[in-house]
Amino acid sequence: MSLEALLPLSDLPPSQELRELRATLFAAAPHGRAGSTARQYSRPWACVTEWATAKGLAVLPMEPRVAALVLTRELQRCYRAKLGPGGVLTMSAAIHFHHWVRGLPSPTGTPACDLARTVARRNLAAGRAARRGATMEEVDAALQALTAAGTLPSFVVAAMIVLGFYGFLRAGELLGVMWRDVSFSDDHCEVFIEQSKTDQERVGVWVVIAAADVSGRG
User: Fold this and answer.
1) Contacts of 142 (CB under 8 A, 6+ apart)
2) What kind of fold does domain 136-210 have according to CATH?
3) Up-side HSE of residue 180: CA atoms within 13 Å toward CB?
4) Neighbour-count burial of 33, counting CB atoms closer than 10 A to its CB (0-12 exposed, 13-18 middle, 19+ buried)
5) Which superfamily is assigned to 33-127 in CATH?
């Protein structure tokens, strides 16, 4: 699809500068998202384009019904491989992303595409093995072994386990914690999480961890 179709300038006064600005806008469009986002979508997008091209179907712009069929095909693959819903959801996001960076309307907002995503979330997730969290006894055993080692790395790992377990922190949140992000008081400590999946405004959050009374434990 031409740049003229993406951003028409024909009804404006002829200007080389306007054409250059339009080209600059769409050349910069991929940088509107994090680089990791584009890399995450590269593989599923390659699968989409390969399959659609082999079937003689248009990729850009893609018809909504074609998008729904592509997602259904990925749904079948995830069923066979006993995978979670991530494959379908990521492929849907990849289709949306590659239309967005070109100024094209996304074909993934239709009821058919939504149905494919809903089925993936409800059925593929149910087929995955449930994750079991660590018990307090397992955490205690790990802490005893680490502190008995008496080395700086072992104490660092022990501190991370305590913060992660009692602060209910995700691995990504925990790995971003620095010493300056932890504040201690007599009855609790506070941990500042700069980036969290639940922090929609990306302003950071403070997690409060109450001090435990271990006087009666052997």
Assistant:
1) 158, 161
2) hpI Integrase; Chain A (1.10.443)
3) 1
4) middle
5) Tyrosine recombinase, N-terminal domain (1.10.150.130)
Please give the structure tokens belonging to residue 187: 């009855």
CA distances from 34 to 31, 66, 81, 89, 123 (A): 7, 27, 30, 18, 30
* Per-residue tokens: 2: 């031409």
Domain boundaries, the chain: 33-127, 136-210
Q: How far apart are CA 133 and CA 53, in angstroms?
A: 44
Helix axes 86-100, 35-54, angle to 10 degrees: 90
| The 3-state secondary structure of 47-96, one letter per residue | HHHHHHHHCCCCCCCCCHHHHHHHHHHHHHHHHHHCCCCHHHHHHHHHHH
Local confidence pLDDT in tens for the 218 residues of the chain: 444 555 667 777 788 888 788 677 666 655 555 445 556 777 888 888 899 899 888 888 889 999 999 999 999 888 888 888 888 888 888 888 888 777 778 888 888 898 888 888 888 865 455 455 677 788 888 888 888 888 888 888 888 888 778 777 777 777 777 777 788 777 777 888 776 555 444 556 777 777 665 445 54
